[in-house]
Amino acid sequence: MESGKSVYIAATLASILISLVLYFQGKRDTAIFVGLWAPTILNLGQSLVDDE
Q1: pLDDT tier at 6, thresholds 50, 70, 90
Q2: Which residue spans traverse the membrane (predicted)?
Q3: What is the mean pLDDT of residues 22-26?
Q4: What is the mean pLDDT of residues 35-50?
Q5: Which is higher by pLDDT, 8 or 2?
Q6: What is the four-CA torsion angle of 48, 49, 51, 52, rounded to 10 degrees?
Q7: pTM above 0.70, yes or no
Q8: Burial of 19 from C-beta contacts in 10 A (0-12 / 13-18 / 19+)
């Protein structure tokens, strides 16, 4: 079960890092869009891990 949580946490951190890279490249709208993935990924992960 811990490995399941770590996958979603890693995906969340990757989303935040990608968002930061896009922001500093000047692609602000895309960075905001990708940045909004983080809470969605965490919520999905929590839902799926709780079902197990």
Answers
A1: confident
A2: 6-24
A3: 96
A4: 86
A5: 8
A6: 130
A7: yes
A8: buried
Residue type, 30: T
Under 8 Å between Cβ of 4 and 52: yes
Look at residues 17, 7, 12 and name the one whose alpha carbon lies nearest to residue 40: 12
Residue range 12-36: average pLDDT?
A: 95
Structure-token pair, residue 26: 């000047």
Which amino acid is located at 14 in the chain? A
Q: What whole-number distance in Å separates Cα of residue 29 and Cα of residue 22? A: 9
Which structure tokens are listed for 47? 């839902």
Domain range annotation of the chain = 2-51
For residue 14, count other CB atoms closer than 10 A to its CB.
14
- Write the single-letter amino acid at 13: L
